Amino acid sequence: MKKINKQKIKNKPSSGIISAKRLAAVLAAAASAFIMAACSEPKQQAAADEPEQTYASETAASEEPSSPAAQEETTLAPYGVTTLSLYVYNQAAGIRERSEGYSSEWVRGKDIVSFEAFATDEASFSFGGRYFDSVWNSYWERFDNAEECKIGYTIAFPLKSGEIVKKTILHPDDVFSYRNYLECYLYDDVHQVQGNWYSHLLASEVTDDTVMTSIKLTAGADIDQVGSTITLTAFVYSPKYGFDEAGNYTGPVQYTVTVKNTAG
């Protein structure tokens, strides 16, 4: 048997294998050169007279118009009853006079003054033989959406101790927290048997139709601890005009009077 020279077989090149390796190397070099050439090509710029395109999504956040709700919040149109004043009945003249304030001596247990709220700003007017409900409705019902509106009050006064008493009144039960200083009586003068005597409004009598058309102030048992002024505000509230988180009225329809104590 002929002896085989393993060294020569190991080192003997195969022409097929060498050609494949060389081809692969050539292709790799060509691909590398192509990639480098592509990467080194400068980025094409927009023509000088052709503005660069801007997409809507890039400016949407800064140019988006305010929502209708936000616009309504800042430009809220008048709604419902937009005029309200407080009147005092001048019995001698037989007319209602718009109050610019009221002064009297406060005596414990005695009435101070009564105010009536009408949806007008007339300086004075007469019932002309009509009942309260007829006159009151003639003003109130002039306004669109008046049936959605109610009347509320805010009472505020200082105590001689320095404390300030302030209360929003939307219901007959809202008057009790300061009753020892000042008694407030509310009346619905519209939903009554006209011409008959009636008393102040009770919580049990309140319905969806109730409207607190007048308020009477009476000196409480501790009236001597109250400062010299009482501030009363009547206001119109509705689905459009409400209150803040603290219960303060935030609407635009209100009328304020100051009641002064003339006692030294």
Explain the overall architecture.
The protein is an alpha+beta fold. The chain has 5 helices and 11 strands. The protein has helices spanning 6-11, 15-39, 56-63, 68-74, 132-140; strands spanning 85-90, 95-98, 102-104, 111-118, 124-125, 150-158, 164-169, 182-187, 214-219, 229-237, 254-261. A 6-stranded antiparallel beta sheet has the order 5-2-1-4-9-8. Strand 1 and strand 2 (95-98) form a beta hairpin. 20% of the residues are buried.
User: In percent terms, what proportion of residues is strand?
Assistant: 25-35%
| pLDDT averaged over residues | 80
Alpha-carbon Rg, integer: 43 Å
Number of helices: 5
Order of helices and strands: HHHHEEEEEHEEEEEE
Number of strands: 11
Structural class: alpha+beta
Shape: globular
- In helices, the fraction of residues equals 10-25%
Strand order of the largest sheet: 5-2-1-4-9-8
The parts where pLDDT drops under 50 for at least 5 residues are: 1-75
Spatial gap, N to C terminus: 148 Å
Largest sheet: 6 strands, antiparallel
Describe the secondary-structure layout.
Layout: H1 6-11, H2 15-39, H3 56-63, H4 68-74, E1 85-90, E2 95-98, E3 102-104, E4 111-118, E5 124-125, H5 132-140, E6 150-158, E7 164-169, E8 182-187, E9 214-219, E10 229-237, E11 254-261
Parallel strand pairs: 3-11
Antiparallel strand pairs: 1-2, 1-4, 2-5, 4-9, 6-7, 6-10, 8-9, 10-11
